[in-house]
Amino acid sequence: MEPSFLFGILWVVPCAGAAISLVPRRGVEILASLIAAALTVAISIILLVLPISGSFGYFYSDGLSRIMAVTTSCIFLTSVAYSVFYIKRIKEPSVRFRWYYCLLNLFAFTMLLAITVNDLGIIWLAVEATTVTSALLVGMERKRTSIESAWRYTLIVSAGLAISLFAVILVYFSQGTLVISNLVREPLKNTIIMSIAVGFALIGYGTKAGIAPMHAWLPDAHSEAPSPISAMFSAVLLPTSIYAFVRIFSLLQGTPIVFEEIRNLVIGFGIFTALLAAIIIGYQRDYKRMLAYSSMENMGIILVGFSLGGIGALGAIIQIVSHAFAKSSAFYGSGNILIEYGTTRMIDAQGVIGRLRATGYLSILSCLSITGAPPFGVFLGEFLILSHAVQSGNLILASLLAFAYIYAFIGLNRQAIRLIFGQSTIGEDPIGDSLKQPNHSLVNADKGDVSRSKVVIQSRQENRISILIPLVNLAISLVIGIYMFPTFLQAATGLGP
Amino acid sequence: MVIVIPFYDELVGLLGISVILSALYMLGQAYIDPTIRAIAIQSFIISALLGILFLHTQDANLLYLAVITGVMRGIVFPRIMLYQVRRFKHKLRETGVGKKTPMLVIIGIIIAIIGYALFKSILFPFLPNTQLSVPFILLLLGFFLIITRRNTLGQMTGYIQEENGVLYIGALIAPGIPLLIEFAVLLDILGIVLVAVILSAQRDIFHTLEPSDIDQLSG
Predict the structure, then answer these.
(1) Any idea what the Cα angle at residue A79 is, between residues A78 and A80, rounded to 5°?
(2) What is the torsional sign of CA A185, A190, A193, A196?
(3) Of B159, B200, B214, which is closest to A159 when you measure between CB atoms?
(4) Residue pLDDT, tens place only, B117-152
(5) Domain residue limits at A333
(6) In contact, B77 and B160? CB cutoff 8 Å
(7) B1 is a domain residue
(8) What is the pLDDT of residues A210-269, one digit of tens each?
(9) Which residue in the set B155, B184, B194 is minimally distant from A155, CB to CB?
């Protein structure tokens, strides 16, 4: 089968899913989106398995783009499936459900377009188009903070991306083409202009990827968007933007001296982001914001990995994939908690394990996974990046990375343990009004004496879909870690004397 | 056939200064209507600049670019935004800057001077084209316009101004950039403008045009 045909289908399927979602018949949007997402998963896996690299007309394929296409498709599928459970529980949606599914399909399409197209200009366009398609998804819940977050996201990201358009123009000015396959083949004509272009691309695409200090939109959008959308943002949108930057950045590799200087700048931004996020995580009061900062920390580390190259870049790719599955699992779990408690404030949702036993255990495992606990894939990615920093003799960078890993691990998991296993405030819950809710039953421990009675909360049977989907994603993150274990052993032995 | 334009440099310089003046005028507006009209005029001036560049270089791409810039940025986007202002007339009038406008204009002039100095010292050695200072300053003033407004549509004008700057840079240094991309960029901005219109209506419903009390979105 022709590779360009497969790539074409990969683009067409989510567009068709979006169009069919608008048919005004009950249930069509869910069915169309599920089929479209499943087809994109199937096609992207075929593309990954087939050894096809290079350019095919409008399409560009290499290891990175194919792995990212599979990740994006899988998260798209799980987000659609989780939306079936989650989205109908939104009390006051700002757009109709069929529009939600239409935009979700288009959102996936724009990301797949950015990952597989053979033109830097179209990549810019696709990354910008992700903003257009996802802004209304962020503001899906018709409340003040959601709408405000959606607008902040639209404005900050669009203003930032205009700078990366300048970078794309500079690439064209220097090389006379924007076609990736030509750019990769030809030597650099103007190294200085290309260095400036990489600098502008770092600011522009870095804004979208949540690289500090351009990250202002990220925690707001992640915390206010519906959980399936937060999962897609964190798992695949941020890496897509990193991918767009890496495409421009990697062009400098032909000129070692300039590459070295620019690389230090990129590493600086990456490590600053990781450290800032690692420090902030521990002070969050909102569990979705906490997960958002964790994404920021991971993106900083991934940027460092790509800048280091070699085994560091391999670590970055492993981290992108395993973080995508683990973080989406964490966000789906947070969706379960949000539905149960009606709040994202940690203090009001403490003691999750008492009400949602399965979600509680899933969430704590997801949090361990995203912070790099072995044997999950994120651990392996982080370890490879760290080992490359040590091997290249950059001990300051290695110590800063280790500090970020440990600080984020302690900060996030301490908060997560408090949220999941903490003392439930159900008795004096001011907003939950728990006694009136049908979701949980309260059993009087001492029926003889009401005044001295102790309230015991029974966990309830949870919706199977809401557990199964995050469980599958978490399992995939675990499998990646185990599958790549030989690489870990190789890197670990390479660190020895 | 190359058309010799009399006073080409002076004409381009004069129009460039008009673009900067329109940006400063926008900074000085306390109401949304004149800000949107000013962005339309600014887009027409840039369209004229592109037309002159076309006559000078005979690059057909620049002519197409001039036409679509004039139509989309000069007419379509401002129309959409003005329609929204008329729909929510009483609430979308203010830009949210109150009586600070004279100060903003002065800061804008200072930014323009600093922008010129930055351009001359950093970019000019590698991009030796004096005209490039105009879009560079426009880009900076666009950012400044965004951060000084609280109104959705006011911020949107800042974004379009910023895009105008990038477009002009592109036309000056890389006029051969595929037109398909320029079209796509315009469609993309159209999408952003439509999102802005939808969200501004929602924000209006929630009375969050002056969002000073949203303390939940912090930390």
Answers:
(1) 90
(2) positive
(3) B159
(4) 999 998 888 888 888 999 999 999 999 999 998 888
(5) 259-497
(6) yes
(7) no
(8) 998 999 999 999 999 999 999 999 999 999 999 999 999 999 887 877 788 899 999 999
(9) B155
Q: Which residue has the tokens 């004509």?
A: A189
Nearest residue to B149 (alpha-carbon basis) of B41, B33, B32, B42:
B32
**Mean pLDDT estimate for chain A:** 88
The answer to whether A404 touches A275, Cβ cutoff 8 Å, is: yes
How far apart CA B55 and CA A38 sit, in angstroms, is 53
Distance CA A224, CA B85 (A): 27
Determine which of A154, A191, A296 to mutate to test the interface with B (most B C-beta atoms within 10 Å): A154
Q: Would residue B156 count as lying in a domain?
A: yes
**pTM of the model as a whole:** 0.91
Positive or negative, the CA dihedral B31, B34, B39, B45 is negative
Is residue B211 one of the residues assigned to a domain?
A: no
Q: Residue A22 to residues A40, A75, A198, A319: CA-CA distances in angstroms? A: 19, 22, 40, 36
For A145, list phi and psi in degrees, rounded to 5: -65, -35
Whether residue A134 lies inside any domain: the answer is no
Residues in CB range of A2: below 8 A, 6 or more apart:
A56
Going by C-alpha positions, the residue among A329, A284, A301, A309 that lies closest to residue A238 is A301
Which pLDDT score, from 0 to 100, does residue B93 have?
66
Which chain B residues are closer than 8 Å to A176 by Cβ?
A: 176
With b for 16 or more beta-carbon neighbours within 10 A and e for fewer, the A39-70 pattern comes to: bbbebbebbbeeebeebbebbbbeebbbbbbb
Q: How far is CA A32 from the centre of its chain?
A: 24
Q: What's the domain count of chain B?
A: 1
Instruction: Assess if residue B39 is contained within a domain.
Output: yes
8-state DSSP, A141: B
- The pairs formed by B60-63 with CB atoms below 8 angstroms and a separation of 24 or more are B61/B175, B61/B176, B61/B177, B61/B179, B62/B171, B62/B175
Nearest chain B residue (CA) to A163: B166
Kindly provide the residue ranges of all beta strands, DSSP E only, lying in A36-82, ordered along the sequence. Answer: 54-56, 59-61
Query: A39 in a domain, yes or no?
Result: no
What is the residue type of A44?
S
What is the phi/psi pair of residue A141, to 5°?
Answer: -85, 125
In this structure, chain A runs to a length of 497
Closest to A210 in 3D by CA, of A318, A115, A323 = A323
Contact A158, A200 (CB under 8 A): no
Q: What is the mean pLDDT of the segment spanning A35-45?
A: 96
Query: In this complex, which of A139, A170, A284 lies closest to B199 when CB atoms are compared?
Result: A139
Q: Please state whether beta strands A59-61 and A442-444 pair in parallel, antiparallel, or not at all (unpaired).
A: unpaired
Reported ipTM: the value is 0.89
**Count of beta carbons in the 10 Å neighbourhood of residue A310:** 12
- When divided into structural domains, chain A yields a total of 1
In a domain, A317, yes or no: yes
The reply to whether residue A154 touches residue B199, judged by beta carbons under 8 angstroms, is yes
CB nearest to A151's CB, from B174, B180, B199: B199
- Asked if residue A376 belongs to a domain, the reply is yes
Residue B94's φ and ψ, nearest 5 degrees, are: -75, 145
CB atoms within 10 A of CB A93: 16
Question: Which residue, chain included where needed, has tokens 């979308």?
Answer: B92
From chain B, the residues in CB contact with A169 under 8 A are 166, 169-170, 173-174, 177
Which one of B132, B188, B215 would you mutate to disrupt binding with A, by most A Cβ within 10 Å of its Cβ? B188
Q: What one-character-per-residue DSSP string does A361-396 give?
A: HHHHHHHHHHTT-TTSHHHHHHHHHHHHHHHTT-HH
pLDDT per position as a tens digit, A308-336: 988 999 999 999 999 999 999 999 999 99
Tell me the three state secondary structure of residue A443: strand
Partners of residue B163 in chain A, C-beta under 8 Å:
162, 165
Phi, psi of A59 (to 5 degrees): -105, 150
Joined tokens for residue B32 = 């949304």
Q: A46 pLDDT band (50/70/90 cuts)?
A: very high
Measured CA to CA, the distance from residue A234 to residue A323 in angstroms comes to 9
